[in-house]
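Morning F.,

Quick status update on the modeling queue. The single chain you submitted on Monday has been processed. Sequence for confirmation:
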Amino acid sequence: MNAVDRLVAHEEIRQLASRYALALDSRDLDTLVGLFVADVRVGRDERGRDALRASFEASLRGIGISILNVGTHVIDVVDDAHATGHVYCKGEIQDGDRWIHQAILYRDTYERRGDHWYFVRRIHELWYGAEVGVNPLSLPPANWPEHHDGRGTLPECWKTWNEFNGR
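Structure tokens below.
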């Protein structure tokens, strides 16, 4: 790969991780599964985006709000169609009445198919998950910019979030 193609690959792959976080947090499952190769392996015995969508839906039904903040992203381009990466992510997750912080490492495998890069595999590893002292969802509305603290308008302002939650 020439230098420009390598830079473009890095940026497109970086966008995969960011789009994953936004799609997951907004519960936009169509976008989320579209970030993966069409024949993605799901578990031991299943393949395809339909199986991946069912897997995401089942796991996301078990939590409330999530906020994924992508940080360090190291990408190793193998050739013009293959790459690997390590993505650091700070997550905040609603677990019933509890509010959890997580430090996550994603170990990724990427592949270029046609004109686009996709996830082939995404392994989620955890440094820790810890309950936070104050659940921000129990706060009164912030009515930003009136107050700096309190409950905001996300994620309910996303149409996909509301559809996922039957609203």
